[in-house]
Amino acid sequence: SSVNACLALYAVDEQFGNLSLFFILFSTANFFSRLFMTKIYQFFTERQVFLGITMLLIVFFFGIGLAPNRFWIFVLAPVFGVVMGLYYPLMAAKILKSMPESEQGTSNNINMGLQDIGATIGAVIWTGMAGVFDSYRIIYLVCALLAIAMLLIVAIYPSVLKRYHVKEEQW
User: Fold this and answer.
1) Strand, coil or helix: 75
2) Which pLDDT score is estimated for 168?
3) pLDDT at site 64
4) Which pTM does this prediction carry?
5) How far is it, in rounded angstroms, from Cα 167 to Cα 158?
6) DSSP string spanning 26-53?
7) What is the C-alpha to C-alpha distance for residues 130 and 65, in angstroms, rounded to an integer?
8) Residue 95 banded pLDDT, cuts 50, 70, 90
9) CA–CA distance, 32 with 109 (Å, rounded to integer)
10) b or e along 125-149 (b: 16 or more beta carbons within 10 Å of the residue's beta carbon)?
């Protein structure tokens, strides 16, 4: 979410003009992906959905980072909307399932608070990075690399759990 805070500055830096349509397309895809979320989880496991949205996230970040004009940013907006529409509920459900019922309210509040803090600190860090490298484009390319690292970790995580005889539901 914190990279969205830099998108308008990126557009100014690259002289792409107004990106209001990005946020409309993003929000619409985010909303509709949540409507179909239950259907998606009937066909795929949580891990498959997470791997899929991480791959879409990589496409989004590389696409934004290499976009030659605002048209491509508009094309990628629904991709990011779907990713965020599926990611946040998936992680919230995973957190709630890992907690005893008596602690779910507290864990949900802590999760939401930390997301807000992370988005704020992230926006400051990303903006600082853009200042150091004199380009907002670098933000999206670095995010793509971080998403690749996340994909690799998620892909090998079951092997690590298996090695230590931990059921995946327990993490």
Assistant:
1) helix
2) 64
3) 95
4) 0.85
5) 9
6) HHHHHHHHHHSHHHHHHHS-HHHHHHHH
7) 12
8) confident
9) 25
10) ebbeebeeeebbbbbbbbbbeebbe
